[in-house]
Design goal:
There is one protein chain. With 169 residues, this protein is an alpha+beta fold. It contains 6 helices and 8 strands. The strands form 2 sheets. It has a 6-stranded mixed sheet with strand order 7-6-1-3-2-8, with helices on one face. A two-stranded antiparallel sheet has the order 4-5.
Length: 169
């Protein structure tokens, strides 16, 4: 088993997407990339912890590779908007890849370079690539949020269209 940690806006969206991939065994919503140990949702939402809402993805590399996860990650959010995803604004919603080792760092940097060379986006990719120092799971009520609350307005208005768009491809 292996792990990947990404931040790309609301962790509920990323969790819902990655939970549907073959080879992904678990997705945990949480906080990473900042300087405050064991932050709360309220602290992260203040924008002062340095953390991004993130997901930790446990996956089987014999079934799905890190590069495949990156492909889904870059389709699941807009990597060209600093500190923002749709209506979610603040540094906690930034696009970030938190790598576990030099191999993940290399694949992530090469992947971003390829996206830029292909001109996939009208604006430059602003996704941070930084080492994972710590991942703090979010509060229990954030885990499996979409699965437990599919009728919630945010889920219907934001997550469902993302799922439909992504899995249409």
């Amino acid at each position: 088993m292996a792990q990947a940690v990404f931040g790309g806006g609301c962790f509920w969206c990323l969790e819902a997407i990655f939970n549907r991939l073959k080879g992904v065994t678990k997705v945990t919503s949480g906080y990473a990339g900042g300087h405050v140990p064991n932050p709360t949702y309220e602290q992260v939402g203040s924008g002062r912890t340095g953390h991004a809402e993130s997901v930790r993805i446990d996956y089987d590399p014999a079934i799905i590779g890190y590069r495949d996860l990156l492909e889904v990650f870059f389709q699941a959010h807009d990597p060209t908007t600093p500190d923002r995803q749709g209506v979610d604004i603040g540094p906690e919603y930034r696009s970030v890849i938190l790598y576990a080792d030099d191999a993940q760092k290399k694949v992530a940097e090469e992947f971003i370079s390829e996206l830029e060379a292909l001109g996939r986006y009208a604006h430059p990719v602003v996704t941070e690539v930084k080492p994972l120092e710590a991942f703090y799971p979010a509060e229990e009520y954030h885990q499996d949020y979409y699965q437990r609350h599919p009728g919630q307005p945010y889920c219907r208005a934001v997550i469902e269209p993302k799922l439909a768009k992504l899995f249409k491809k």
